[in-house]
Amino acid sequence: MRRATIFIGIVLIATSALAEDLVLVNGTVIDGTLKARFQGNVRVRNGKIAEIGIFKPAAGETVLDVKGLIVAPGFIDLHNHSENAIEKNLGAISQITQGITTAVLGSDGSGPYAVEEFMLPFDEKPPALNIATFVGHGTVRHQIMGADYKRAATADEMNRMGQLVESAMREGAFGLSSRLDREPGSYGTTEELIALAKVMARYGGTYITHVRDEGAKVIDSIKEAIEIGRAAKVPVQIASIKLGADTVWGKTPQVLAEIDRARMLGVDVAADVYPYTEANLNEKDVRSFSQHAWVMIASDGGLGVERPGSAGAFPRVLGQYVREQKVLTLERAIRKMTGLPASRIGLKERGVLAKGASADIVVFDPLQIRDNSTPQDPFAVSVGMRYVFVNGTMVLKDGQPTGERPGRALR
Ligand SMILES: [Zn+2]
């Protein structure tokens, strides 16, 4: 018995030792805070960033020369739809080759309310990247109202939905998601969403929403999202912000003005954009959205989702919008992929390169990085990402997956 215990102990130590202790040297560091890039080194030890800046590696330390490459925090995708496919695709190659090190699942009202039950399998068999989840408005609505959902909920039903939201938050959901332009979420009233967001607020979550109408009524829909945030006193994330009909194309200034006005009045509202025109948005609008200080980048795709953002969203921004079109500086683009989304859901030790932070790190070639996915070939992987570390373990090496699965189910 005793020998077996000791043996298990050794195996556990060996497993955790997969995290690399090394120093990335000569890289161009962009730390996710908007600070200008600098040449320096990053020491990774025990899954954390132990030191960053100008220092010499110690004698005998493993060194990886990343001269000419950008070293940045791993990308945090706030709107990732891998929830239905990741359990059977733990390697998540189309995600790690984009540099995504944390995928936040459960958007569009679809997230589970039984969060612990959803997360447990990933504790036992971890994926290559970290995951987190929202609880879905549509899910709790379906659970309480069943087939009789094509109406406003009663006070009692709202109460019971609130109980499910509460238990999901206790089990580690990062907030509440909704999708109001489609069934079943579309039957949810503003009042219902405020009630549920108030329950969520007690646990510090974020309300993320695909708004009710992205066409003619887009401004009213943005206002509704802001009103929910104001009334429930919660941060609001407008998911996949867009102008989804040609009749409203060009109205980005009006939409963004609503966000600015709400922020000035103290409502913490922000948005993320899907960096393609395929969702009925013209190129100029995509650019304008992506340039706004409170708009970040998200894939609105993921494993098993047939659209180009699934395999290419982040490299597309780095290739098209930063390198080719010069719509964004690299520092600003990285901020929109790292520190900003991390702050939206309260991830304190991810999204920046700083001493003590978890070692989720991407290393890429700024001249080579680009997306390859298209509507016809949505899963074609991106190129240019050279090394990716998740919790200090290398999951991509010289552009190739290592097969390691150091991701954590965050809650
Ligand atoms: Zn979505």
Account of the 3D structure:
This protein has 411 residues and is of the alpha/beta class. It folds into two domains: 2-73 and 358-401, Urease, subunit C, domain 1, CATH 2.30.40; 75-344, Metal-dependent hydrolases (TIM Barrel), CATH 3.20.20. 32% of the residues lie in helices and 20% in strands. The protein has twelve helices and 18 strands. The protein has helices at residues 2-16, 93-96, 115-124, 137-145, 155-170, 190-201, 218-232, 252-264, 283-291, 309-324, 330-337, 339-344; strands at 22-29, 38-45, 48-53, 62-65, 70-73, 75-77, 100-105, 130-133, 135-136, 175-179, 206-210, 236-238, 269-273, 295-297, 361-364, 385-390, 393-397, 400-401. α4 (137-145) crosses α5 (155-170). The chain is globular, with a radius of gyration of 21 Å. The structure holds zinc ion. The site of zinc ion (ZN) has 7 residues, from loops.
